[in-house]
Amino acid sequence: MRELSLEIEPGESIALVGESGSGKSTAAHALIGLLESNARAETGEIRFEETLLRFEDPRSWRRLRGKKIGMVFQDARGALNPVMTVGAQLMDALRAHQQLSLRKARALAAAMLAEAGIPDPVFCLRRYPIELSGGMCQRVAIAIAICNQPRLLIADEPTSALDPSIQAQILDLLRKMKDRHGLALLLISHDLALVAEMSDRVAVMYHGRIVESGAALEIFQRPAHPYTASLIKCQADLNHHWDRRPLAAIAGSPPAGGEEFTGCAFAPRCPKADANCAKAVPPAASISAGHWAACFKPD
User: Which among 251, 64, 218, 184 is positioned nearest to 204, based on CA atoms?
Assistant: First the structure.
């Protein structure tokens, strides 16, 4: 990540979008202190409710994760422990941050599964993840993420491996959880239709940088960065089937994570790029109140 700056207010939904490899999941892992062993934070800071979080203090991160910040990982089944029952995992998450007896923890775990829309939650407590469908595993993961009433929920591609009908159910569940508990929601996705439905604001990432940010409605109606406009054009619709139009694509490939650029990283793929784009990183250009794009030639 490079010069990443993001603010989320209580009760707000923000979507982080971009191609695979743009740095979305890495940003989410940095927010909860779970960077991989080959990654480190060299500069910058993270503040949560006026508290400065330090990457070198793992004890503070453990107190925060699961209590004030919850996360739904991209692969819900992979995020669950395959040799522990659903109930054991939920109860562990509850008792790690609350002084609860086994009986109270079990009752609260069942209540959280019921809130997550799981029928017969008491029966589900005794099940192992392998015995549940993908949609059910995702509901369990959401229940674990919110069981301690966090203030921020991070959802990393929460519907990517689910059928369309199940996707709609999970999105509706996330929306209800956000409204019911007053959560701030950071949604990470490459599905722009999902983002348009779920988010108040959108931040577009490319090669570890946010290249455009603004209100969701304005981003989709008036994209200012050529990369944002290209992403929107690549979305398929029903008309592609009927009139046999070819799907749009962005020329070239995203750069490798460690590749460095003197200028704009999108310049080699950008139809509007000129010699100046390769000389310096473009500054943020204001488009309207709260809407900006890091481009020398914003639309």
Answer: 218
Question: Has residue 212 been placed in a domain?
Answer: no
Rg (CA), the chain: 21
Q: What length is written for the chain?
A: 299
- pTM exceeds 0.70: yes
Tell me, yes or no, whether 105 lies in a domain. yes
Clarify whether residues 195 and 255 are in a common domain: no
User: Of the candidates 234, 201, 240, 223, which has an alpha carbon nearest to the alpha carbon of residue 287?
Assistant: 223
Q: How many domains does the chain have?
A: 2
List, for residues 47-70, the tens digit of each pLDDT value.
Answer: 888 778 776 677 778 888 889 999
Cα–Cα dist 70/155, whole Å: 9
Question: What domain range is 257 assigned to?
Answer: 224-294
Beta-strand pair 184-189/201-206: unpaired
113 part of a folded domain: yes
Residue 32 to residues 5, 55, 177, Cα–Cα distance (Å): 15, 9, 20
